[in-house]
Design goal:
With 83 residues, the protein is an alpha+beta fold. The protein contains two helices and two strands; from the N terminus they run αββα. The longest helix is centred in the first third of the chain and has 17 residues. The chain starts with 11 loop residues before the first helix and ends in an 11-residue tail after the last helix.
Length: 83
């Protein structure tokens, strides 16, 4: 059995998203369409698992480029996780 932690809304989640965005955008910004905070931590007032979910919208054919650039700064592609 797995324990899932859900917390009351925390306005610091916005700050955490901005930190991640500021780290990643300089690396991939020229190759993406959009960078969005999604999921329950992006909804003010909503209880959520304290995990920042991000969607990176890319043009066709750019995903391998983005994956390579993110790997250089320590991110690992984990597929679509069944979504």
């Amino acid at each position: 059995m797995r324990t899932i932690i859900v917390e009351p809304y925390n306005p610091k989640w916005i700050d955490e998203f901005e930190k991640i965005k500021n780290e990643i955008l300089p690396i991939i910004g020229s190759d993406i369409i959009s960078f969005e905070h999604v999921g329950s931590t992006s909804v003010a007032g909503l209880w959520a698992k304290p995990i920042i979910d991000i969607d990176v919208i890319v043009d066709d054919g750019k995903l391998p480029i983005i994956m390579e650039k993110l790997a250089r700064i320590g991110y690992a592609h984990r597929g679509d996780l069944g979504i």
